[in-house]
């Protein structure tokens, strides 16, 4: 349940101190290098997918790969919201974040994160139509409809982020100002509020936890239908390609949704495990996305070969 503290107008918080991840002091340099390497590899991997989809006509003409490019774009920005702060926490630099910076970080994390949540659902719907209703797919999922659905996901994500920010920062914060987390997220910030947080915790449970769980169930339902349709395919090669494509998506979805649901369905939790789980879906999942979608996706690998061979041929011609 929520809690209440007496508010003193003389001690209004103007900045938050992010305590970061618990870690041995003698491993600071190593950890900062590890997270910096992960950051660079993730950004380069997602940039590679973006450029491949943009450069290959066969990919950017298909809704599946338009959605994949949007996912990569989201991952790049979402990763930049949290990981630089993690790296900073391992350095002697100040851990203070202005109040406005905390507001902005919480907004963009939930705006981009919820947009990604909706996008995963759209990707599952796209695969369901392509495999279960192949004859109607060009009509049901064309470029125009794909653009409308993606725009809707961005708008819904923006509304979600705005609601969370308004509800979180309508509360007074009068101290202490130490956020026991590696970024400004709802559960960690609410613990510092000098007012009853029951309504906020309920909204967090419904608006984040239940919505995420519902999207996850819709995705699982889509894939249950896909598996049923794939098993009825007459050719082994068709089954293999369908399972390969869908397996990549389902792997990424699972490692994103399960930790997310674990955290936000337990908004009042103070478990030290929450930080480790949050690192998994904010750091590990964006790193896995480009790896899974490039190594397990035959179309993307073929497109990379075509682009590479095309450039090689151009160089030789010159």
UniProtKB/TrEMBL annotation:
Transmembrane portions of the chain: 29-53, 65-87, 107-125, 145-167, 208-231, 243-265, 277-295
GO molecular function: G protein-coupled receptor activity; olfactory receptor activity
InterPro entries: GPCR_Rhodpsn, GPCR_Rhodpsn_7TM, Olfact_rcpt
Subcellular location: Cell membrane
Membrane topology reported for the UniProt record: Multi-pass membrane protein
Chief site of localization: membrane
Signal peptide coordinates: none
Domain G-protein coupled receptors family 1 profile: 45-293
PROSITE patterns according to UniProt: G_PROTEIN_RECEP_F1_2 (PS50262)
Pfam family, one: 7tm_4
SUPFAM superfamilies per the UniProt record, alphabetical: Family A G protein-coupled receptor-like
GO cellular component: plasma membrane
Keyword annotations from UniProtKB, A to Z: Cell membrane, G-protein coupled receptor, Membrane, Olfaction, Receptor, Sensory transduction, Transducer, Transmembrane, Transmembrane helix
Tree of life domain: Eukaryota
PANTHER family: OLFACTORY RECEPTOR
Function: Putative odorant or sperm cell receptor.
Protein name: Olfactory receptor 10G2
Organism listed in the record: Erinaceus europaeus (Western European hedgehog)
């Amino acid at each position: 349940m929520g809690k209440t503290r007496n508010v003193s107008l003389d001690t209004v918080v103007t900045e938050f101190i992010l305590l970061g991840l618990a870690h041995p002091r003698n491993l600071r340099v190593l950890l900062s290098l590890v997270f910096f390497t992960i950051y660079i590899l993730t950004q380069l991997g997602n940039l590679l997918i973006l450029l491949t989809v943009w450069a290959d006509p066969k990919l950017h003409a298909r809704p599946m790969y338009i959605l994949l490019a949007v996912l990569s774009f989201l991952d790049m920005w979402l990763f930049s919201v949290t990981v630089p702060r993690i790296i900073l926490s391992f350095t002697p630099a100040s851990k203070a974040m202005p109040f406005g910076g905390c507001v902005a970080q919480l907004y963009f994390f939930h705006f981009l994160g919820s947009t990604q949540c909706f996008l995963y659902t759209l990707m599952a719907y796209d695969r369901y139509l392509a495999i279960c209703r192949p004859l109607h797919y060009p009509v049901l999922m064309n470029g125009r409809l794909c653009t409308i659905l993606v725009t809707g996901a961005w708008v819904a994500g923006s509304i979600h982020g705005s609601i969370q920010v308004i509800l979180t920062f309508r509360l007074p914060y009068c101290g202490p100002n130490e956020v026991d987390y590696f970024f400004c997220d709802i559960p960690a910030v609410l613990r510092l509020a000098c007012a009853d947080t029951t309504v906020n915790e309920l909204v967090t449970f419904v608006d984040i936890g239940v919505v995420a769980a519902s999207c996850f169930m819709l995705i699982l339902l889509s894939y249950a239908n896909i598996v049923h349709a794939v098993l009825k395919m007459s050719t082994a090669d068709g089954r293999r390609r369908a399972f390969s494509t869908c397996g990549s998506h389902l792997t990424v979805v699972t490692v994103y949704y399960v930790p997310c649901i674990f955290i936000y369905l337990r908004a009042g939790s103070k478990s030290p495990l929450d930080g480790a789980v949050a690192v998994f879906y904010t750091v590990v999942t964006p790193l896995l996305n480009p790896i899974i979608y490039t190594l397990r996706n035959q179309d993307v690998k073929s497109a990379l070969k075509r682009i590479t061979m095309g450039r090689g041929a151009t160089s030789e011609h010159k």
